[in-house]
Amino acid sequence: MAQAKRTASTQKTRSAATRNSVPVPRRGPKVVARKSKVHGRGVFARLPIAKGERIIEYRGRRITWAQADRWYPDDDSKPSHTFLFTLDENYVIDGNRNGNVARWINHSCRPNCESDIVDGHIWIEALRDIKPGEELYYDYNITLEEPHTAAEKRRWPCWCGNRNCRGTLLGKKR
Ligand SMILES: C[S@@+](CC[C@H](N)C(=O)[O-])C[C@H]1O[C@@H](n2cnc3c(N)ncnc32)[C@H](O)[C@@H]1O
Ligand SMILES: [Zn+2]
Questions:
Q1: Is CATH 2.170.270.10 correct for 25-155?
Q2: CB atoms < 10 A from the CB of 112, how many?
């Protein structure tokens, strides 16, 4: 009798889930890149991600700042765009070379992810539980060598659309 009850309730749960919600995949990559409403391509969760989970490494070639400046000189005539992620005062990770899907993650002023640098590797981790279909964001907090003037902030606009949006991808300069 007890077993029959369990079976019935399990079936009910299953059919309700099938009727009412999009099935959540159980296998495959945790994240996928596709068109974003914020900017170009973004990265979206495919599977549920738990707060604190290490989601993906920001991969790419490790180059010096001097190399980065030579390869990607500032061009004021073009909208700002970068696949460079600061490792430390000497090195950056260049997502253009040997990069992975993490290079498509957009910025938000109200991010659901953060970066953690461990032994020269950049990890993107969840700041809260993230549901399948949600776009991933971290705060780029970009720091320029020059002062963060209003003109520079406009060269790095933020379109995250949050109520507390700073209006720029630039961070606070110390
Ligand atoms: C690493 S790419 C991210 C992928 C980008 N969406 C694309 O399709 O190339 C970083 C660049 O994306 C743009 N971007 C990322 N987040 C943004 C945001 N919140 N508002 C405006 N532009 C953003 C900026 O041009 C930034 O330099
Ligand atoms: Zn913003």
A1: yes
A2: 19
